[in-house]
Each structure stands twice: as structure tokens, then as C-alpha cells.
Amino acid sequence: MIAFPAGTKVWIAGGVTDMRRGMNTLALAVQQGLGRDPHGGEIFCFRGRKGDLVKLLWHDGVGMSLYTKRLEGGKFIWPVSQDGTAVSISADERQQTWPTPSSKLAGGPSRREGVARP
């Protein structure tokens, strides 16, 4: 488990991100699209078109990290901004609305419901 420092600001990118992008290209998108410093210790979250893949970009003061999570079933529930830009969420909101996998809400059966892995 990755422990982010308390009080770390999290930005959730609005819209869809090309998941072929790597660490440097996502950091550039943070600079140009958000006007934020990707080396500032904030966490930046990006979601792919299908909704089953997310990437988190974070600089911990020592180096840049890129974390990837792909779901085998279901999709990540993603907040929507009014203008398609990034949404900043606080620690309290994170506990309630953090992008979590939900096969029931996103339309696919879970493996616990007896769906075999292909």
C-alpha cells in the first residue's frame, strides 16, 4: 500500500486521457493544461477511455512516480467537472468520492458474482 502524506492535494483530470502517455507526457499535460507544478507534491489522476484504467502521477520530493491500476471487471467511477477541467478534492471528499471500482454501478458483473476470468 502506498501511503500519501496527510493533506496531499489530489487533482482528478476531467475528460479522457490517452493512456499511452507516460510519466513525462502526463507531467507536461499537468503543466500546460492545469498550470500546476507536477513536482509540487500533489497527486494527479487520469482515466482512460474505457474507464477500467487509471494512472496517478506524484512527486514525493525525491522523484516522480507513476502508478497504474487496471480493473479486470467494472469501471472506475469518475467525477465530472462543469467545464471538463480537473477537479480538486479534499481529504474528506476523498473518503466519500475517491475513484473506486464499482462493477454494480458501472454495469459489469464482478468476479465474486461467479463470472470466470477469460
Textual characterization of the structure:
By secondary structure, the chain is of the alpha+beta class. The chain has one domain. Helices cover 19% and strands 25% of the residues. It is built from 3 helices and 7 strands, in the order E-H-E-E-E-E-E-H-E-H. The strands form 2 sheets. It has a 5-stranded mixed β-sheet with strand order 4-3-2-1-6. The chain has a two-stranded antiparallel ribbon with strand order 5-7. Strand 1 (10-12), helix 1 (23-34) and strand 2 (43-47) form a beta-alpha-beta unit. The longest helix is centred in the N-terminal third of the chain and has 12 residues, at 23-34. The chain is globular, with a radius of gyration of 15 Å.
Beta-strand content bin: 15-25%
Based on secondary structure, the structural category is alpha+beta
Strand order of the largest sheet: 4-3-2-1-6
Q: What is the H/E string?
A: EHEEEEEHEH
Number of helices: 3
* Main β-sheet description: 5 strands, mixed
Give the rounded overall mean pLDDT: 78
Domains counted in the coordinates: how many?
1
Give the termini separation: 27 Å
Taking pLDDT < 50 over at least 5 consecutive residues as the criterion, the unreliable ranges are 94-98, 102-118
Which term fits the overall shape? globular
Give the oligomer, counting copies of the same chain as homo and different chains as hetero. Answer: single chain
As a whole number of angstroms, the C-alpha radius of gyration is 15 Å
Tell me the total number of β-strands. Answer: 7
Helix content: 10-25%
